């Protein structure tokens, strides 16, 4: 368990006015997977929230009040996420909750925030988070359904119509599996092999041997964390030469580091953040993603990831809603979030509505390929 707060004593050093210093802070609650199997997702998310809460406070806070970040680490466990969300609501009295690194943690929080009628913006991918729409629940990443559609459309263009699907038994993996099975026929794709693996498995050779013995023309792995990198290494070790696709669940430099040379040629759908320097100057996201990249690397070093981008969008969407609402009252902020139009973020251009609590379309996804150990745009 870890609690991080930007206290008023810290804010004094940020040059705020006396009135802002004395004001009651606006409390932002966060539950993220900063340790455990999803740590490479949760770590950049937390760092991003810390960075931009600090930057917002340096600019005067919101509504003349400083921001305080109250964070707990669920270590990738849904039960812990449930406990910490209860604490944020009942004890910490937060004004919003950001996070849920994983689908499991997010869905453990949903009934709690719905009952409390508190705005909740998730950083997890499964479509079930926002479909059906839940009044108090929003999300920033593209859905798994969109990822399936993007991948299958690319396969279809390449004439790869028979697909082996290897999905993780996590909440994200299960949802991704179901969405891919559902959308495949409309994309002209047939799933000829359907295998699963556990999030903590260390060898997937048995499943991949079945793939090698099939008539599949391409393979899609749907998972997150370290396991997809293990699948990729096993894939190369077995000498399988079929085109290999991954989901947006591994859209980070960490995947490249874990998979090494085995990742060469892998394709996946991703937000623009991973290829910020390759975007056209006319791209509306160019300034946002290059700005975020510069700020994050200056503060923390290393590489940015799409997961940090999801946190950036979550915080900034909420801050924008608070400004437009002129209040942190839950019902007013919720209504302002639903009225978001034309927000240009790290994940795309967001247009929400009462029936759409994500606000992204397929154009927000870019298809990338690993070439020479880095990400390259292929569309």
Automatic annotation (TrEMBL):
SUPFAM superfamilies on file: Periplasmic binding protein-like I
Keyword Nucleus: no
Keyword list, A-Z: Amino-acid transport, Signal, Transport
Domain Leucine-binding protein as annotated: residue spans: 25-371
One family name in Pfam for this protein: Peripla_BP_6
GO aspect biological process, one term: amino acid transport
Top-level division of the source organism's lineage: Bacteria
Stretch forming the signal peptide: 1-22
Family to which the UniProt record says this protein belongs: Belongs to the leucine-binding protein family.
Protein name per the record: Amino acid/amide ABC transporter substrate-binding protein (HAAT family)
Organism of derivation: Plasticicumulans acidivorans
Native organism taxonomy: Bacteria, Pseudomonadati, Pseudomonadota, Gammaproteobacteria, Candidatus Competibacteraceae
